[in-house]
Design goal:
Elements: H1 2-6, H2 11-15, E1 19-23, E2 26-31, H3 41-53, H4 57-73, H5 86-99, H6 103-116, H7 121-136, H8 139-143, H9 158-167, E3 183-186, E4 198-204, E5 209-213, H10 218-228, E6 233-234, E7 237-239, E8 242-244, E9 249-250, E10 252-256, H11 262-275, E11 287-292, E12 297-301, E13 305-306, E14 310-313, E15 316-318, E16 323-325, E17 332-335, E18 350-352, E19 355-358, E20 360-364
Antiparallel strand pairs: 1-2, 3-4, 4-5, 5-17, 6-10, 7-8, 9-12, 10-11, 11-20, 12-18, 13-20, 14-19, 15-16, 15-18
Helix pairs in contact: 3-4, 3-5, 4-5, 5-6, 6-7
Length: 384
């Protein structure tokens, strides 16, 4: 359901094995799989049932509508591999419509259900209740029952976040429109990079965000993934003085010390050379390796080398700066999340868009303010 919402995917197209959304009245492919496998009525019922059990009736209505349509297409004949039936789908869909305020649909579906199970006392009571509600309702309220996405959990940044995830691009000027955005071979004035400079792409000036291409080799990426595998656990977030799992962060992660593999030490040195900062513990965190499977995401937050690529989704969206960066395999993205005066930079609020197709691996390196007093000095301007 998260993928459906963020990428505005049509349920009807998902049922056909396609990934499409409607833009300007036209259906466009978000992702075109090599093989399209349609879903069955029971498949749709199982998805709708999950939403139903979470009291997410906005999504349960959409999926159960498809389930009922497909079950009807088979004449309601039950198949041994099905866990659900047409009667199950009608029952769940009727109550879902009732909970979203569409009492007339709830009534008609319940009446249809009675054709299959005329002695069902609960459904008979529901029919009586729905009929009374319709009699006491105004015609305007009955006509106004349009299915709407609930806003109870609506983040203030949700619309921007989802738009950036869908476009996988920028609302800012492109490089050829803004001379302050450029690509170059970067040495940071360090002798270690004179003969082998790094390909740098400046993506944003405020906040300062750069992408270092080919930061990590294929072998180094595999070393990191292989070393982290045994320690991967569900990612947690700060919850007061404790840490806990959260729905807004779905991933697995592991922490690697510099001594866990020679490649980790090499990456620490490379990060230090590129940034000019002291990254050794305790001035920097250990390397955090994160795996986002399909649907894995991290909603807007303040805090990464990319070890793999994905077929669709997985961009990093900068919410207030209003641009997103697609997954670039073996690249590293870097930004300052503190101003020189030590104040946080709100423009670095960012989110990891859900992975639609593929398996996303990233490595994060957080560098502390403490220990950088002579590496990144304060400015004479107290506002910087």
């Amino acid at each position: 359901m998260r993928l459906q919402d963020v990428y505005a995917l049509q349920v009807a197209s998902l049922v056909r094995g396609r990934f499409q959304r409607v833009t300007d009245g036209k259906s466009i492919d978000v992702y075109l799989p090599a093989v399209s496998v349609p879903l069955s009525g029971d498949d749709c019922f199982q998805v709708g049932k999950v939403a139903y059990e979470q009291e997410d009736y906005y999504h349960s209505v959409q999926w159960l509508e498809e389930s009922v349509r497909l079950f009807r297409g088979t004449g309601g004949v039950w198949s041994p591999e099905n866990e659900g039936t047409l009667e199950d789908a009608l029952d769940h869909l009727a109550f879902s419509h009732f909970k979203t305020g569409n009492v007339s649909h709830a009534l008609s579906l319940s009446q249809e259900l009675l054709h299959y199970d005329p002695e069902n006392g609960r459904v008979l009571q529901n029919v009586e209740k729905y009929e009374k509600l319709l009699v006491s309702s105004s015609p305007e309220s009955i006509r106004a029952n349009e299915l709407r996405r609930p806003t109870s959990n609506h983040l203030r940044t949700r619309d921007t976040y989802e738009m950036l995830c869908r476009t996988q691009g920028s609302q800012q000027p492109l490089q050829f429109e803004n001379p302050r955005l450029f690509c170059d071979y970067f040495t940071n004035g360090n002798p270690q990079l004179l003969l082998l400079p790094v390909r740098r792409e400046v993506l944003s000036v405020q906040p300062y965000v750069v992408l270092y291409h080919n930061f990590i080799t294929d072998k180094e990426a595999e070393d990191i993934k292989r070393t982290s595998h045994p320690g991967l656990k569900r990612s947690v977030v700060a919850a007061g003085e404790k840490q806990a799992t959260a729905e807004y962060r779905i991933s697995k992660s592991a922490w690697l010390k510099g001594s866990s593999h020679s490649t980790v030490g090499k990456l620490d040195n490379k990060i230090s050379v590129l940034t000019g900062l002291n990254v050794k513990h305790p001035y920097g965190e250990h390397l955090q390796v994160v795996n986002y499977g399909i649907g894995g995401h991290y909603e807007p937050h303040f805090d990464h080398a990319t070890l793999s690529t994905v077929e669709a989704g997985g961009s990093t969206a900068f919410i207030y700066a209003n641009f997103s960066v697609p997954v670039v395999e073996k690249a590293a993205i870097f930004w300052w999340n503190l101003h020189r005066n030590g104040q946080g930079d709100a423009d670095t609020l960012h989110a990891g868009c859900p992975v639609l197709i593929g398996d996303k691996w990233v490595a994060n390196k957080w560098i502390h303010e403490h220990g950088q007093e002579f590496q990144r000095r304060c400015s004479l301007n107290p506002e910087e």
